[in-house]
Predict the structure of 4-pyridoxolactonase.
Amino acid sequence: MRFPWGPATVDDLPTVGDRIDAFGDAANSDSPGARLRMVREQARSFRREFPSTGTPDSVTTCDLVTLPYPTRFGLFRASRAIAPFLSITNRMLVIRWRDSAQRRRTLLFEPSDVELGRYTPYFADLSKRTPRVLERQVVREHGTVLGHLARLGIGPEEVDYLMFDHLHTQDLRRWVGTTVYQDDLESTPRAIFPNAKVIVQRDELAAMAELHPLQRPWYQPAAYRDVPAEAFLPIEGSVVLGPGVAVVKTPGHVFGNQSLVLNTSTGIWVSSENVIAAEALTPEHSRMPGLAAWAARWQQEVVLNANTIETTAEQYNSIIVEKTLADRSQTDPRFLQFFPSSELTGAWTNPGTRPTFSHGHITHGPSL
């Protein structure tokens, strides 16, 4: 399938932000164990330096949808819950800051088009096999991207950047527009966010041009065929976007995975889908069945979100980076200020998967 960026042109697209070589040396190490030691050391160094960049003006959390997700994926091999599914809540973060020229910048992190995301092969297949009456019980929509922005008084034209930790399930056609008519949408969508660019790792764009079978259930490649190339701002590695706002490359869950790192009034937060619960970074404190015992038995520091195991050792190492960067929660210091972009949510339908601790939201700066 041809993509607007194409394997030959991806390197010609523009970049954004100030690149930081936070973990570049570790990528060249020969063994995963050596890389783990190196990324831990380099993450500590970055953690010391990052607060000096400042803080954004505000961070606001917006709930989008709660939906079922296989327990064996979200809690890898650790859970002993009897429920085959758990629940996760997808949330969008709205981050605002002023650049060096005092221009207001707005980043939407995880602005999922929930309606079109349902057509991701895995979730479309799951929906077909789930009775409608049960689906209505386990899928709950909380709000839309545009609805949340209207509530916050932010016009679509004010949004500068869209960013996802990775592009699993994402269909961006309504957000960035298309170049030709779309049969399923019965239109040629004009960009709802006309001034926004999608920040994405070059690795992920390149990989989507020829998906591996392990990747196919989770992407919607046809949704990218007709989007304009100039809608993307590819980056290589890690960049500082603004005061207290950084993108850190965290490969493993997908080859081009990336995490959002924020310096706030409560310290450093990290957000991605590498794990689905804050306690997955400190499983020794988890009361969910199996997690603490499994982590102790196998000397595992973290519990992965493993729906795709593209490079498992790299994902583990990336989670250690996130664990090293995040400050401790002011609510319960046993847990870290890691905010899962898809956070484990307790539900009566999923016994044994209620989280010991959850953040629910991030509060920083004045209410918008």
In short: The mean pLDDT is 90.
